[in-house]
Amino acid sequence: MIKHIVFFKLKDSSAENIEKTVQVLRDMDGKIPMLRSLEAGADVIRSDRSYDLALIVEVDNLEDLQAYAVHPVHQEVIQYINTVKDHTLSVDFEV
């Protein structure tokens, strides 16, 4: 199993914009067959070192992660994210 975790810092970190972006991420759930699980949520601490929100997805293997990366639903989300993000970080690891 591979966990893919992405942290997002948004250009506009208003509560409304964060919640809209979280919903855009959550809307992928059930639309991409290789995803075993999907979680997205807003940071609750809001410290100086915090990112605004995070996405965690699980897939079976690296091939599924690569298929997820190019899936049309994911590509639409990336187009949206590219308009609102300031910075992202990600990590992928086996569990």
Describe this structure in words.
The chain is an alpha+beta fold and 95 residues long. The chain has three helices and four strands. A four-stranded antiparallel sheet has the order 2-3-1-4. The model has no long low-confidence stretch (mean pLDDT 98).
Please report which band the strand proportion falls in: under 5%, 5-15%, 15-25%, 25-35%, 35-45% or over 45%: 25-35%
Nearest-integer average pLDDT: 98
Helical content band = 25-40%
Structural class: alpha+beta
Q: Tell me the number of strands.
A: 4
Biggest sheet: strands side by side, in what order? 2-3-1-4
- Count of individual helical segments: 3
Order of helices and strands: EHEEHHE
Largest sheet: 4 strands, antiparallel
Instruction: Catalogue the unreliable spans.
Output: none
Report how far apart the termini are.
5 Å
Radius of gyration: 13 Å
Envelope shape: globular
Short summary:
By secondary structure, this protein is α+β, with helices and mostly antiparallel strands. The chain contains three helices and four strands, in the order E-H-E-E-H-H-E.
Topology:
Blueprint: E1 2-10, H1 15-26, E2 37-42, E3 53-59, H2 62-70, H3 72-84, E4 85-94
Antiparallel strand pairs: 1-3, 1-4, 2-3
Write a concise keyword list for the protein shown above.
single chain, 95 residues, alpha+beta, four-stranded antiparallel β-sheet, 4 strands
